[in-house]
Amino acid sequence: MAVDMNVKELLVIGDSDLLIHQVQGEWSTKNVKILSYLHCVKEISKKFTKIEFKHIPRIQNEFADALATLSSMIQHPDKNCIDPIRVGIRDQHAYYFHVDEEPDDKPWYHDIGRFLTTRKYPENATNSQKRALRTLANHFFLNGEILYRRTPDMGLLRCVDVAEETKLLEEIHAGTCGPHMNGFTLAKKILRAGYFRMTMESDSILYVQKCHQCQIHGDFIRILPNE
């Protein structure tokens, strides 16, 4: 595109430190698959009077990655004329991290903890619900006000509510040492850390799907959805 527009001076910005140094000739290229692309870039570079390659961190290249992802998802019927895209810059991201709140402002383990303490059932509970609560309570242990889930190897996992789970998801998935793992791995890592919630796996999967960094830098299959 720059050649067709008769551009004479060009600044190329990329987030791959390896490719930038290879194009500049500072690092050698050992991958045979990249050699043909490198040769093509050098031939095109001769058409400019001045061309400069600059590396920037990936976190600063999110907008270009988003446009590249968008272009791979859209098949425009007219290749000669493409409608302009208006992009508005907002103060905050449009995405959000949120786990559904408890409907009655009580933790999900409230009935289990009360049954272990007072042996009382919830109001209007049917016989089948009472039997299910008794069976479920056998897998939990109450220590003061803290409820633990017993594991098959006689370990104890601390039960957490929505607010505590949200903090765990944020810290373990994208915290200081968070590797942005997938939902199943995230749920297992939280369990290994000693915490438990009945919907931990499904909540972890939904959280990862809403992670902004995972959407931008994830390994997407860049192919049209109709192919």
Automatic annotation (TrEMBL):
Q: Describe the location of the RNase H type-1 domain by residue ranges.
A: 2-69
Question: Per its UniProt record, what Pfam families does this chain match?
Answer: RVT_3
Could you say which residues form the signal peptide? none
**Any one GO molecular-function label of the UniProt entry:** RNA-DNA hybrid ribonuclease activity
Source superkingdom: Eukaryota
**PANTHER family noted in UniProt:** RIBONUCLEASE H (PTHR48475), RNASE H TYPE-1 DOMAIN-CONTAINING PROTEIN (PTHR48475:SF1)
Protein name, entry field: Uncharacterized protein LOC107814372
Species in which this protein is naturally found: Nicotiana tabacum (Common tobacco)
